[in-house]
Amino acid sequence: MNKREYQICINCVMDTTDSKITFNNEGMCDHCQHFYGNIKPKWIVNEKSKEKLENIVAKIKKKNKKRKYDCIIGLSGGMDSTYLLYYAKEVLGLRPLVFAVDTGWNLPVADKNIDNLLKGLNLEKIDYKIDKEEMRDLQLAFFKSQVPYQDMPQDHVIFASLYNFAVKSKIKYILTGGNLSTESMREPNEWVYMNDLRMMKDIYKKFSKKKKIKKLPTASIFKYKIYYKYFKGMKVYRPLDLIPYSKQIALDTLTEKFSYEPYANKHYESRLTRFYEGYWLYHKFGYDKRKAYFSSLIVSNQMTREEALETLKKPPYDEKEALEDMRIIVEKLGITVEEFKIMMKEPNKTYKDYKNSFWLIKFGVWISKKLGLSKMQYR
To answer: pTM of the full predicted structure?
Structure first.
């Protein structure tokens, strides 16, 4: 097969490193076309969205007026979830339970940001403990599997812990920092595959001596999309989509009120995520997730295309810092740097090389779009 000729969108910075990207006659990519055709017309922040949020908040407060907490918010230290927690308590007057999962990878600056926020808001958080040994085995299995999406184990465990805990504690309302302002362009599947428990179990079985995940919290698509929602009454809301929100608004507010220190890139509050996005993906696969992050900011008028292109000329983060992260990570995983470098040179693989639920995920996304529950592109 002939290698595809390189092309970059005339409007954003997505390009043919996304192998399924398409362009119209003017050179605009399908990501931008989807945003302008399907997301922007329906994503309107005005008096109606304000009223919608007020109604949601009123319902949450009414249903939980006799409880200590009326909702739950997962906190990672990232800007979106941090701003959401501030807004939920100080502006909306909610009484959130702050929930954090210690996966062992938060950077000191992230812990400092979290501490400053909690002190400033006079809130405590639940630090949910997971089995670190099994988590380590699962993460090492993923590196051995040669797939791009090394954040899946961490993401799955965090969200499964949150959902399982909320249902067990009978807290029906979950607020999340997900938003269209900074995340309207979803990375292609070959860069970031969706939460697939079947694939995760298969990789663990193939590359771990223990074969079965026994101690880590898990949640299948059926459990959190169907059972928890329709049988347990769990509701997940994204308040940031209903208010004027931008990266700059969040940064200015958090810096002024809580001495918040920003990270070099989105999701870089985690050492593992920083290394996976800035080194593993970048050097092994040639994928740069900043292209999707920056493109979201471009179409929402928070960044110019020229600024994005200039920043993309530089690697995601310093090579010396990346190698130090590598040393720390492989030591925790129980292998040597030499073993890891050999691993990086092995043939790349995708979800297609393992048992997976892609057809079910794709069908679920299609249903969500038909019902108007999701605007995101998935292919």
So the answer is: 0.91
